[in-house]
Request: fold
Amino acid sequence: MTFPVVDGYRTIELGSPGEGRSLLNRLVLDGIKRATAGLVADYAEEDEPVESVGERLVLVDDDLNRLGLIEVTRVDIVPLCEVTWDFAQAEGEGFTDLADWREAHESFWISKGVDITDTTQVTCIYFDLVDET
Reply:
């Protein structure tokens, strides 16, 4: 399975479908969310490359409708234990500290059946919204 393509660009689907995705998309469109985290293992599972600096991605809703276009400005691949507070703040989700960020992300990934440890490889993707549909 590969990432969906819309208007010739790979898509980015934040969080889980439903209310959670809608909230994350709104944070991007409101200029608050400028980063997102993923698991390196998910890219291997999907047979997809990790995003690269300068790559543009279509932000989509649950039905793959285009909401905007983002451009990747930085990509760090680090063990979970090395994710920084600067990154957590750039996610724009109101985390109170790095422990709060980690708890939220571990809970999300564990709910998807993923075993998480300090050495789990995480993609930290920073981006700018370049076009809102």
Observations:
- The first helix runs from residue 19 to 29.
- The two ends are 27 Å apart (CA to CA).
- The first strand starts at residue 5 and ends at 6.
